[in-house]
Description:
Elements: H1 11-27, H2 40-47, H3 51-63, E1 67-70, E2 74-77, H4 86-93, H5 100-121, H6 124-139, H7 144-160, H8 165-173, H9 175-188, H10 193-211, H11 215-246
Helix pairs in contact: 1-3, 2-3, 5-7, 5-11, 6-7, 6-10, 7-9, 10-11
GO molecular function, one term: DNA-binding transcription factor activity
Keywords: DNA-binding, Transcription, Transcription regulation
Domain HTH gntR-type: 12-80
Amino acid sequence: MPVGAGATGRSGNNADIVFRYLRGRIEDGTLSAGDRLPPERDLAALLGMSRPLLREALRALEMIGVVAIRHGSGTVLCRPDASSLAEFFTFALLQDVPVTEDVMEARIAVECQAGRLACERATISDITALRAAVEEIERTIDDPEAGAHADHAFHSGLVSAAHSPVLTALYSTLADLLQRNHVDRRRSIPATEAFRAYVVDDHRRILTTLVERKAKNVDAVLRRHFAIGNEFRDAAARQEILGLWSV
């Protein structure tokens, strides 16, 4: 019986059938990135769908980087770039409101594990990049948007320094939401001396922990960093509410 027997003919379902077929071939070692898929006629027969529906399904998968359709030479299996899926992931998560706290919880989990690994695996190049990111955070401390981008770059660099493809992929899918969260926070929190000191000093503290390879300490340092950030955010929210009441 063809793999896709019983398909309804709707492109979404057919794309799912093709995707499951490709995943199965990757799992059993039959296909890997760069390999050419079976000829269209053979693949359509194998999956139990018409060639037009197969083409439509392959075009849908090409949009998310699963395959590359090369006219005249066939379709090739690709290794999707996780960052290219970030927009789709963001779109899906934004359907659930509020999503900020869930994203922050996921971020903390990823960064704490990444921090422990970075203490063991970070290279001189990684440390140099993180030092540059801290300098950029200090330089842009009074610019909410530029400062938020610098802040995000530091934390992305921390995850990269873990040299864990899975953690990097997970973090990349959250990138758009995290970037937005960084900007929103910096815009909402008054740039007091206390906040400026927190932003600069805490990132230096995280960097020092990595440089000194203190894997046992980095989890506490990162969690303290996030907790204090939440305190500043909550204080700013309370002040905003009091301001509205006083109007």
